[in-house]
Write a structure and sequence with these properties.
260 residues; alpha/beta; Rossmann fold; 11 helices; 11% strand
């Protein structure tokens, strides 16, 4: 490209707030000439790379905004430690169809079996697909809702959170809640029912959620809304983190950790 054309492209790319177009156009120009591309093919190739770069940049922004404690992927997950886990089911969930259907995912099992890893990995997949995601432990979510309630902003906060395509609630059951906290958490679950997706992880079977929330009625109503449109996945076995320690069981890793 001549100097005038290069300068013109540089000006236009700045005006469009797409500075990568200048570099891409220059990089592809010789390839286009050698390959006999049409003007349309060349334009499409330049714009395709700009869109891909923007998507990647946007995904990274969404991932950072989600508040993940670490970055985990499905490719990194050790399925050998969970041989009973259906890989095809996990791959299908990673495709994100559940988000468009406002379905939930519940991951149950003892500590160290990979629940949080899978939850984060599915969240990162969702972010790459263009969805806004927020991650937090159950305790952190309750604290957020309590703060909003204390400021008289609970309804506005619940409405704001409903605009997120995916909310991840980690570690349900590790710490019991006061009844007021349980009621706040129920409002979060209820607001997303058939509107947007939740991914929840818990070390306890549903039958013991009443102990966590201090109210069997609230727990039953919450579970009813969560599992109505949900994939419930049970992970089993010893903690992966303890695989080289000689410790094979933990106090909470009992046979009762089922979906019943």
């Amino acid at each position: 490209m001549g100097d005038d054309t290069t300068a013109r492209i540089e000006y236009l790319s700045r005006a469009l707030k797409a500075p990568r177009i200048r570099d891409t156009a220059e990089r592809l120009a010789e390839q286009a000439r050698d390959g006999g591309w049409s003007h349309e093919d060349y334009l499409a190739a330049v714009l395709d790379r700009e869109v891909a770069a923007r998507d990647a940049s946007g995904a990274q922004l969404r991932i950072r905004a989600a508040g993940f404690p670490a970055r985990k992927t499905l490719d990194d997950f050790n399925f050998d430690h969970q041989p009973a886990l259906n890989r095809d089911q996990i791959a299908h969930l990673g495709g994100g169809v559940f988000l468009s259907q406002a379905r939930n995912i519940v991951l149950l099992g003892p500590p160290g079996t990979g629940k949080t890893h899978l939850a984060i990995a599915l969240g990162i997949k969702a972010a790459h697909a263009g969805h806004r995601v927020l991650f937090g432990t159950a305790v952190e979510w309750v604290a957020r809702l309590q703060e909003a309630h204390s400021r008289g902003r609970l309804a506005a906060e619940i409405l704001r959170l409903r605009r997120y395509g995916l909310i991840i609630v980690d570690e349900v059951g590790y710490i019991p809640f006061e009844q007021d906290a349980a009621n706040l958490f129920f409002q979060l679950v209820s607001s997303r029912y058939e509107h947007a997706s939740l991914v929840l992880t818990s070390n306890l079977p549903f039958a013991r959620w009443g102990d966590v929330f201090g109210d069997q009625v609230v727990a039953s109503a919450m579970i009813d809304r969560i599992v109505h449109h949900a994939d419930v996945i049970t992970l089993k076995g010893a903690s992966y983190r303890l695989k080289d320690t000689g410790i094979t069981t933990l106090p909470s890793a009992r046979p009762e950790n089922t979906t019943e």
